[in-house]
Amino acid sequence: MEISSVTLAESLSPEDLRGMLAEHPLVENMDPRHLQMMADIVQRAHFDAGHYLFREGEPAERFYLITKGSVMLEVYNADYGPISIQNLGSGDVMGWSGFIPPHHWRFDAKVCQPTDALVFDTQLLQRMCEVHTDFGYDFMKRVAGLVEQRLNATKEHLQDAYSRPR
Description:
This protein is an alpha+beta fold and 166 residues long. The chain is built from four helices and six strands, in the order H-H-E-E-E-E-E-E-H-H. The chain has helices at 14-22, 32-39, 122-131, 133-162, and strands at residues 43-47, 52-54, 62-77, 81-89, 93-94, 108-121. Strands 1, 2, 3, 4, 5 and 6 form a six-stranded antiparallel β-sheet that branches. A hairpin with a 3-residue loop joins strand 3 (62-77) and strand 4. The model is unreliable at 1-5 (pLDDT under 50).
């Protein structure tokens, strides 16, 4: 499986991109000024099934809002191979690792079905958070909610795995 770089989809007008962004659950009820700031730096991308968007340990340089498709987050275990952690689809987000030192991916992300996403450069988002602190506070509260969801999904997965009789 090869690692996929960002494959830009067909060009959309700034208004169409802003509309796609506004439909994503992450930005629900976001201040319109903040939504516009994000729309100014977003790119639309498509990823084919079978590719890896990123691998654990690599620099986390992108933030993904999935609009269509399916991506499996995995961890690799030398004894068992890839272990599925969570299947992400439309309305989900990947990329909070880019905001937390050491800014490296903590999972592998394998595209299961052709996937469309809105993609941000993490460094640009970080600069926006630092310069526009009202945006940064709102955005990071939303990211913290994502971290909690991912931790809960991992916890449930571990409970399922260890609740089986030995």
